[in-house]
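Reviewer 2 asked us to include a model.

Predict the structure of this chain.
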Amino acid sequence: MRRTLGGLAVALCGPALAQEDAVVVTATRAPRPALEIPASVDRLYGADIRSGRQQVNLSESLGAVPGIVVQNRQNYAQDLQVSSRGFGARSTFGVRGIRLYADGIPANQPDGQGQTGNFDLGSAARIEVLRGPFSSLYGNAAGGVIAIETEDGPAEPTVQGDFLAGSYGTRREALKFGGQYGPVNGIGSFARFHTDGYRQHSSADRDLANAKVRFGAGDTSVTLVGNSLDQPQTQDPLGLRRAQVEQDPRQADSAALAFNTRKTIEQQQAGVNARHRLNGSNELEAVVYGGHRFVEQFLGLQNNGVVRLSTNYDGGALRYFHTTGSLRLAAGAEYEAMSQGRKGYDNIAGVAGTLRRDEVDEVSSTGFFAQGEWAFAQRWIAHAGVRTTDVRFNITGLLGTNGGGVGYQGTTPVAGLVFRASPTLSVYANAGRGFENPTLVEIANRDTAGTGPNFNLAASRSSHRELGVKSILAGRVRANAALFNIVTENEIVVDQNSGGRTTFKNVGHTDRDGFELSADTISEGPWHARVAYTHLRARFREGFNTVIGVAPNNTPVAVAPGASLPGVPKDYLYGELRYRIAPFFTQLEGLHKSKVAVNDPNTDFADGFTLWNAVAGLEQRRSRWRFSEFLRVDNLTDRNYVGSVIVNETSFRYFEPAPRRSMSVGLQAALKF
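Predicted model (structure tokens):
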């Protein structure tokens, strides 16, 4: 067993261990058996991520994790909508409320906003997902942690090529090479993706490169990682009104064509992780990273309808691990910083016009954490931790806006208890606090007359409680279940959304009560199955007023007490059945999602749906060659449905239709040298 980069992904485990329990690290920052962790943690391995899949979006595989909803918007100008136990569902741009990591480097900016576009699924070894209060030990996100880790290079140098072609002009070409060279292990990959898009005005191109090199000498290991994303001129069809969906779900909104809505993204980043074992009980880890991200977005409006963001970001961490008998401790300091130049121009029929807004946004986040694990009795294990986070904003207004600064501080304790009823059965409970400061998007505009940021917006804070059970049934099935209750105070919601200008405010409380269940087979044999189910009631406790374009003349609309949080399905069910006997493999997937509200007042809903997908393929091995081919059919029943919603969209354009029946063919060849 080895420790992994940044202590953030699933540790490698041998076949014997896989038959009993998985080894996970996000909750404790060190490899521990899942049965000894008082938290909901799931992991997906390379085969789950890649086998018979396009390897483009997290939505392809994360549906198998309970508590997580990933909505593929079929719009590459907007990032995936990812929510965890309802956190993040309201985000219009990127991922919010969830901490994201790629090889130990945060994919969130210090303000909490994150992106998944630089996640390279083609070279991923594993993805680990943590839900519940232990995620608060990672900073300003109460929803959870999603950590992806790049695979190591194989023992023998190997080159692999992938090709995929599918409906709507979709194709993906990828090349991967890696191996072990003495004390050096390395892997690099490059993938090019293109789609004409299911909808009008939705074509996209994306080039993604990823590399990892690790050096090991005695008690010290150093890992270098680098990543590059180039996504030029990605068309944005915008959302549709209900009448438009019923008329033609493949159309783009007229504003998308009039203003040529689109988005360009460029990002390059690099980092280094160094680990040194001081002795048998003590270990140090240091992480340093930096990067640059450029975004240019043309919105569907004229005034300030072009946004250009040029961001430099960097950060680092120093962590200490100690083990003495039944006691394990971890502590550390983490720092993140960004400096973002923001410019706003008029959008004149798809061409940048007069400069209207010019500012420099600086955000830093400093965090200190400590956590411990104590096996104080034969079957009892106690966990506890605390983190303090200090996030500071400084905005310098150069044109069209005022400046200023504000700080947000939060201390988030968490504790959990595990009872090992047997070697294959654990019962656990946990409780803790969460902290979420507003993002730059949320403080960008004041909620009153005038220009400049809204520094009156407060951080939201949450209390979490969870009770769960984990088991290995007859050495054949791994099953987990959890009940949870979350109360959030000072929830951040839309105050006014009109004319392309959105302001936010705090309201009283929200309640999230839910149940999660997952099971997957772990025994040898040709048949494998997996199921994940989430039931979640997420509601506003108190009523409030909002202006989101649902009434004439921007009249405030009442949100009633008990209204559902928009974008959060009450029920979400995923299942898959796989059969593999060389050289043949096949897989059937099913997904059900209940209806979701599209805005805070619950004046409209996107209908629930059930989908079926199927895969069939072959794999051949010849000497040092390996070949694989597959055919995939998504939406077997050709259902017409809305795959995602734009929460609280000001022009009623809530709905983002998903493709009808579609097909893709994949080919892969690998050669060992």
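Confidence is low (pLDDT under 50) at residues 1-19. The helical segments are 15-18, 46-50, 242-247, 254-258, 440-443. We have added this to the supplementary material.
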